[in-house]
Write a structure and sequence with these properties.
The protein is an alpha/beta fold and 255 residues long. It has a single domain, classed as 3-Layer(aba) Sandwich (Rossmann fold), CATH 3.40.50. The chain has eight helices and seven strands; from the N terminus they run βαβαβαβαβαβαααβ. Helix 2 links the parallel strand 2 and strand 3. Helix 4 runs parallel beside helix 5. The chain binds NADPH dihydro-nicotinamide-adenine-dinucleotide phosphate and 2-hydroxyethylsulfonic acid. The site of NADPH dihydro-nicotinamide-adenine-dinucleotide phosphate has 31 residues, from helix 1, helix 4 and helix 6.
């Protein structure tokens, strides 16, 4: 296994959910951690919690391509050589059918889940290639493989993430750079609260009567993938809570 103490890990969307849990997991194992997200108070709180000189944090909106490049260029020397990029920042907005969905919500998901992930990858990947060492871990979703009503653009952004991950693998072949797409199903975080725009009771209903996965479950999986021996690449990891599975194909009977 790779020793986490030798790793510098950059996590986007570290202010909540999977990202915060991932930053904690790597920090506990002695890795250097770079945390980012839009909410400054959360970044400061996590920095204080993780403490010491092995954590570096700043606010970053991944939708701003110029800010992304500037943030990577401005990394202090001791955090500049990123070994593991966890492209986690992302969101779903709305669960309505495509015909009534809010176009602005669709644009935000595309700008964050697709364009933001691409900006961060493009800023960090050249350094990995130059050092001939690195691992890009993307947060896809089971929604990128299995369609469900209301998943429309969210699921499509995650299908992009899956295919981009596989295509990255094809491009970096020959270098010691790994690419993994993590594809979780239901996990309880702030995800549903964001999806339902702050409606906490609607968000809570999503997890009613079922034991969802936790951010720590996802973080452990990311940690596992990142610390496997350097010659092993997990291409895709699809994971669900035991009590979630696939639905039947929908049949509308008209007579
Ligand atoms: P949370 O809502 O708990 O966390 C999302 C994180 O993304 C926050 O830290 C948020 O920080 C950050 N973020 C959102 N927009 C931006 C932006 N424009 N720039 C930078 N950071 C941003 O959700 P999860 O932890 O559950 O989700 C993490 C990832 O996992 C997402 O990509 C999601 O699609 C995916 N996923 C989630 C599943 C689930 O069931 N929860 C299942 C499968 C995949 P801030 O607001 O401070 O910027
Ligand atoms: C998040 C999981 O089921 O809400 O990607 O699409 S789901």
């Amino acid at each position: 296994m790779l020793d986490a103490k030798t790793l510098t890990v950059f996590v986007t969307g570290a202010t909540a959910g999977f990202g915060a849990a991932t930053a904690r997991r790597f920090a506990q194992a002695g890795a250097k951690v770079v945390i980012s997200g839009r909410r400054a108070d959360r970044i400061e709180a996590l920095k204080a919690e993780l403490g010491g000189d092995r954590v570096h944090g700043f606010t970053l909106d991944v939708r701003d391509g110029k800010a992304v490049q500037a943030a990577i260029d401005a990394l202090p020397a001791e955090f500049a050589e990123i070994d593991v990029l966890v492209n986690n920042a992302g969101l779903a907005l709305g669960l309505g059918p495509a015909q009534t969905a809010d176009l602005a919500d669709w644009e935000t998901m595309i700008d964050t889940n697709i364009k933001g992930l691409v900006y961060v990858t493009r800023a960090i990947l050249p350094g990995m290639i130059q050092r001939d060492r690195g691992h890009i871990i993307n947060l896809g979703s089971m929604a990128g493989t299995y369609p469900y009503p209301g998943g429309n653009v969210y699921g499509a952004t995650k299908a992009f993430v899956k295919q981009f991950s596989l295509n990255l693998r094809a491009d970096v072949h020959g270098y010691h750079v790994r690419v993994t797409n993590i594809e979780p199903g239901m996990a309880e975080s702030e995800f549903s609260e964001v999806r339902f725009k702050g409606d906490k009771s609607k968000a809570k209903d999503v997890y009613k009567g079922v034991q969802p996965m936790t951010p720590e479950d996802i973080a452990e999986t990311i940690f596992f993938a990142a610390t496997l021996p350097a010659h092993v690449n997990l291409n895709r990891i699809e994971m669900m809570p035991v009590m979630q599975a696939f639905g039947p194909l929908a049949v509308k009977r008209e007579g």
